[in-house]
Amino acid sequence: MKQLVPITIMCLASAAAFGQGQDLTGQVLDVAGRPVVGATVLEKGTNNGTGTDGSGRFTLRARSQSPTLVISSIGFAPQEVSAGAGPISVRLAESTTSLDAVQVVGSRSQNRSVTDSPSPVDIIDIREVTAKTGQLDVNQLLQFVAPSFNSNRQTGSDGADHVDPASLRGLGPDQTLVLVNGKRQHQSALVNLFGSRGRGNTGTDLNVIPAASIQRIEILRDGAAAQYGSDAIAGVINIVLKNSVDELTVSANYGAYDAKYRFDNDRFDGGNFNANVNYGIGVGTKGGFINATLDYNKREHTQRANVPSPDGIARRQYGDPEVSNAAAYLNAKFPLSDKAHIYTFGGMNKRGGDAYAWTRFPDDDRNVPAIYPNGFDPIITSDIVDGSAVVGARVLVGEWDLDLSNNFGSNRFEYGLRNTLNATLGASSPTTFDAGGFQLQQNVVGLSATRNYKTVLQGFNLAAGAEYRREWYSLFAGEEASYRNYAPGSDLAGGSQGFPGYQPSDAIKAKRDNVGAYIDAELNVTQRWLLAAALRYENYSDFGSTLNYKAATRYNLTEFLTLRGTFSTGFRAPSLAQINFNSTFTNFIGGQPVEVLLARNNSAVTQKLGIPSLKQETSTSANVGLTSRLGSSLSLTLDGYYIKVNDRVVLTSQFSADDPIIGADLQALNVGQAQFFANAASTSSLGLDVVLSHTLTLNSGRLNSTLAANFNRLRIDRVTTSGRLTGREDEFFGPREQAFVKASAPPSKINLTFDYQLGRFGALLRFVRFAEVELIDYDGNTQVYDPRTTTDLSLSYALTDHLQLSMGSSNLFNVYPNRFDPQLTETGGAWDPVQMGSNGRFYFAKLQARF
């Protein structure tokens, strides 16, 4: 890593020596002559680009002799212009007259831009982000760019070590809907059982989609179940895949952590290598394309177990898992005529992971000294295969834009164990096991119709559609030795240590059907006043029907000030995994192993206790905000929100075998503790999103400054019990479990970013402040993780017109959360997965070629 310093110095020193091309200036307007703010201006075939300011103007230092600029903006048709002498003037046409129309999430009007949306929408240009930051996967990119988004890597959390749970506005991972090119993305088959984030939730694995295949990410920070269906309580993340043609992009990245707490000879660990290639070719003469991406990522273990503790260590191995990830993604459009085309997109992702489980020390009765005289650290392996494929057709029939599509997705997760044993087999025990796993599949057939009536007042957009969705879930058992106790009656625990395999009694196959229909309308009453409404009906074969609505408005008080507001109801159907998951696993409480039964919702145990079948979560949300352009280079958005969620599906507290009500039943099942899924909690969230952006021409360069913040307060309003556990609220969903729900996000996250570009040289400086987080340890004591601020710094330099080098550091000052006794944390390490993570400073270097 020491080589980074001289390379950086060489790049900076040679900046003055490189000859610069011509300075290009211009203005981007719409057809009415109004400036297009935030339009993207790229020099074709290079890494060179910029954006327009508050007056639609831009300045760009060209790198080629005869530059061609590609100018684009949401809601407008992209345009290529050849630079000549003098200023460039471009007028972008609205893209509503062709099937190339781009739709921003949150509105089905194809000429709605982000700035005039009635709901708050963040647009994240992945090309800009990946070129200048050290994060390589989508979750970590968003964690440090979008304040309302939170995701941390977890350790000691079984499957969640391999699939990073993420949340929006402090709600659960399964309360955010993920779309790809506007189509529903399937969820992961995994149920998160441990860790501080996503506990008891299923969610969508964003990291199956390589960042190299993404053009932009749209984050709708508003309830949208009435528009898009289940899961959109907190908002919607729409991932838009690349559609560029005749451009080859190749990237190679490497980084590693400064292992501050390692006491061996390894100064760095957690090496992270990523390589990818993206290329698109044109098809026909009517805008067709095929854009393909190949991506490979290899992430090594970090080691953070060697932290002094007043009571010794709980684990000898603690840190990020080792992960290998390979993906191939495709996005394509095949024109049939001026009024029809076929499209397809999707991809495959193959991931393998190694995560350390809790240590079995030499004198542990779960160890066999003949096999491991020094004890052992079980390794939980994962084999995850994720695939999706969407095929559809769009056609103009009169004034109607029709879209018919079929969307299939599958996520399969298989567990394995190595460096472990089954203690009841003694010295003859194998040391590797197949522990079983689960799979979730989804197929969606959808038909939508959209029409824009330009002569109705100032414009009326009408959309309607219907969807049929079928979901399948299966849980399959592992090999016999992974779960069986071969010495019944003894004190020895059966099954593979670290993660007992799923038993045949856990295995299940389940499915359900869903039918939905919606109508969505937007009316521009005047040029200043917009009204919008949506209504959606859905019926699930396993719990019934739901009807939800949304109303929204936007009013331009002046040319520089706009007010907006929304009110909506929403819902989230319990996932098939939450309904059908069943497992017996080992948990460590105060460092002591305990066998825990997680009984499926309709099992004999839950029925005996009177726990009802899971039903939908329901929500009410409101958003009130303003957008303002304070001069030509300064913009501000403020959005306050309130989200009320009733009957949240949560993972209850664990009941022990000596419980006066349930104890006899647990003893009969030979388990020490049990817990369940139940609609046990109602919560309310009150928050504020703030985004302040400024553009400044500084000497011959350009400085973009952004202050973005999320302030969020989540409360547990009510705990609901039932059956034989009625009246035992503090035991059913107690303070410790409630703390995990509240810790889905810090109460505030503030991001201050300075992005400077001068010719071939660029620099990015970013500060992110995470507010304090409170958890409760196994002794019932409050753990307060104090506020922390991380600093990221990156420098970039265009070595040639087509080759760019970037290097820098994330968490430059090596900031860690507060440390606690590993014997009492959830993970068995000095930190739980809160705030910015617990790996410290990260150095990185990237080389990107674009032709």
From TrEMBL:
GO CC annotations on file: cell outer membrane
List where in the cell it is found.
Answer: Cell outer membrane
The answer, when asked if Chloroplast is one of the entry's keywords, is no
Q: Which Gene3D superfamilies does the annotation name? A: Carboxypeptidase-like, regulatory domain, TonB-dependent receptor, beta-barrel domain, TonB-dependent receptor, plug domain
Task: Specify whether Transport is a keyword of the entry.
Answer: yes
Keywords, ordered alphabetically: Cell outer membrane, Membrane, Receptor, TonB box, Transmembrane, Transmembrane beta strand, Transport
Q: How does it sit in the membrane?
A: Multi-pass membrane protein
- Residue stretches making up the TonB-dependent receptor-like beta-barrel domain: 348-812
Pfam families referenced in this protein's UniProt entry, alphabetically: CarbopepD_reg_2 (PF13715), Plug (PF07715), TonB_dep_Rec_b-barrel (PF00593)
What region holds the TonB-dependent receptor plug domain?
Answer: 114-236
User: Of which family is this protein a member?
Assistant: Belongs to the TonB-dependent receptor family.
Q: What is this protein called?
A: TonB-dependent receptor
